[in-house]
Write a structure and sequence with these properties.
Blueprint: E1 2-3, E2 8-12, E3 16-22, E4 28-36, E5 42-50, E6 56-60, H1 62-65, E7 74-82, E8 85-91, E9 97-103, E10 108-115, H2 126-130, H3 141-149, E11 153-154, E12 160-164, E13 171-177, E14 181-188, E15 192-199, E16 202-208, E17 212-217, E18 222-227, E19 232-239, E20 242-249, E21 259-264, E22 267-272, E23 277-282, E24 288-295, E25 298-305
Parallel strand pairs: 1-22
Antiparallel strand pairs: 2-25, 3-4, 4-5, 5-6, 7-8, 8-9, 9-10, 11-12, 12-13, 13-14, 15-16, 16-17, 17-18, 19-20, 20-21, 21-22, 23-24, 24-25
Length: 310
């Protein structure tokens, strides 16, 4: 496995940190801190940190994060939308959630999107259910709702990739829904559609079993097969023209030993950042990486310069 041992620019290890996300230019980091309240429930805040100086500012306070909670609040995702906008996704766990768009310069919430508890389908996929008649030959309303709410992935070309398993069948059918339902592949029932992406002009997706993750293309050609435990899942990360595959447990509150591979000339090449890797992100040009890793029962963060990697 290729090791990356280069200049460490920033280390955070005084609290429990999750979802480290470098700004596009790699000069700033947003990260959430996890706190446990006396009643045992979780709360959070979000910090904006200057990588060079290590100075931090509160981007979202605990009070602001807790506005939409009933029992507790925690961050489910952070994303840079631009050089000065960050999307903060918060959840109560049982009672829906909200995504806040925060202006990093003014440190002010400029937009919010509420996610209801009974919202079975992500908002960006609702139009596919509204056009259910296009897919009626392959999906009745109940099966379509289940497919869209059960791991569907929106593709760059505008369609969505879903899988369908019908009771008693021996196979899983994988479709792309667009103007109609296009059958992509049929695989054994024990293989379940995982992550999917359109990259460099072709469709790639993973097929999961209880013991393995298989990366395939649209023609079902196997690029690589990696071992997995039953609670682990694969996801893609794109950095410029590079594509990474990340395998880690689905639960974010258990100690992780995440593994990362880079797709290089139709082969997956291991990239090692830490044996206890929890999460990672790159700057837009890939010259810096921020990782969170488990240390003494909580997650620390390290930002590393990769520009001199040999």
């Amino acid at each position: 496995m290729l090791s990356v041992l280069l200049a460490v620019l920033l280390t955070l290890d005084r609290h429990d940190y999750v979802h480290p996300r470098l700004s596009p230019d790699g000069k700033q980091l947003v990260v959430a801190r996890v706190f446990e309240r006396p009643d045992g429930n979780e709360t959070t805040d979000v910090l904006l940190i200057d990588v060079a100086s290590g100075k931090s500012r509160e981007l979202l306070s605990r009070k602001e994060a807790e506005k939409h909670e009933v029992y507790e609040t925690y961050v489910t995702g952070l994303q840079w939308l631009s050089s000065d906008r960050v999307a903060v996704s918060l959840s109560d766990g049982d009672v829906g959630g909200v995504t806040l768009t925060v202006d990093t310069k003014r440190r002010r919430v400029v937009a919010e999107e509420i996610h209801e508890e009974d919202q079975l389908i992500p908002p960006d996929l609702a139009s596919f259910l509204a056009n259910a008649e296009r897919y009626a030959a392959e999906f009745d309303a109940e099966v379509l709702t289940s497919a869209l709410g059960g791991g569907a992935t929106r593709l760059a070309s505008g369609g969505v990739i879903v899988h369908r398993q019908l009771g008693g069948g021996e196979q899983t059918s994988i479709f792309i829904l667009d103007d109609d339902a296009q059958l992509v592949a049929t695989v054994p029932r024990e293989e379940e559609l995982g992550a999917a992406i359109e990259h460099d002009g072709r469709l790639l997706f993973t097929l999961n079993t209880d013991t393995s993750v298989r990366l395939v293309d649209r023609e079902l050609r196997t690029i690589a097969t990696m071992p997995r435990t039953r609670n682990e899942y694969a996801r893609f990360r794109v950095v410029g023209s590079k594509l990474y595959l990340f395998i880690r447990p689905g639960s974010t509150n258990e100690a992780a030993k995440g593994r990362v591979w880079e797709l290089v000339e139709d082969a997956l090449v291991p990239r090692h950042f830490d044996e206890n890797l929890d999460d990672f992100s790159f700057s837009a040009d890939g010259s810096r990486v921020a990782i969170s890793y488990w240390k003494n029962g909580r997650r620390a963060v390290r930002v590393t310069d990769l520009s001199d990697r040999r």
